[in-house]
Amino acid sequence: MTIFKGLREAIVYIAVCAGLAAAFALAWLAALGGQFSHHFGACLIVLGSLVSVTGGQIPTKLHMADVNAWVGIDSNSPTEGIPYGALTSVGVFLFVTIPLVAVGLAMA
């Protein structure tokens, strides 16, 4: 079941990144013109790189911030023992970053 949770989380990451990339590409297209597919591909590459750098932990840590504050966990303390999501940093890289960058390179 953990495998399916991880894949479902990867699909959500990809869908959110694709939506953000489309919004940024439309704004870029409206401002400077050009071809949408090139702008969309470049935005996918940038967002895929940002997700890879953060390890995919930004959304889950933001989601858990109020819970951590309620139970008294310091936001600056190490969080190795606290399970945030089904995907680890390696899983985010393999199942989110690589597909986003590959599709972005194909489109750009």
What does this structure look like?
The structure is a single chain. The longest helix has 31 residues, at 2-32. The chain has one domain. The protein has helices at residues 2-32, 36-54, 58-71, 89-107. The chain starts with a helix and ends with a helix. The protein is mostly helical and 108 residues long. Helix 1 packs across helix 2, helix 1 packs parallel to helix 4 (89-107) and helix 2 packs antiparallel against helix 4.
What is the domain total for the residues? 1
* Order of helical and strand elements: HHHH
Instruction: State the shape.
Output: globular
Please report the distance between the alpha carbons of the first and last residues.
36 Å
Largest sheet: none
Strand content: under 5%
List the uncertain runs.
none
* Strand elements, count: 0
Radius of gyration: 16 Å
Q: Treating each run of at least 4 consecutive H or I residues as one helix, how many helices?
A: 4
What do the pLDDT scores average to? 81
Helix share of residues?
Answer: over 70%
Secondary-structure-derived class: mainly alpha
Task: Summarize, please.
By secondary structure, this protein is an all-alpha fold. The chain is built from 4 helices and no strands.
Characteristic key phrases:
77% helix, mainly alpha, 0% strand, 108 residues, single chain
Q: What topology does this entry show?
A:
Layout: H1 2-32, H2 36-54, H3 58-71, H4 89-107
Helix pairs in contact: 1-2, 1-4, 2-4
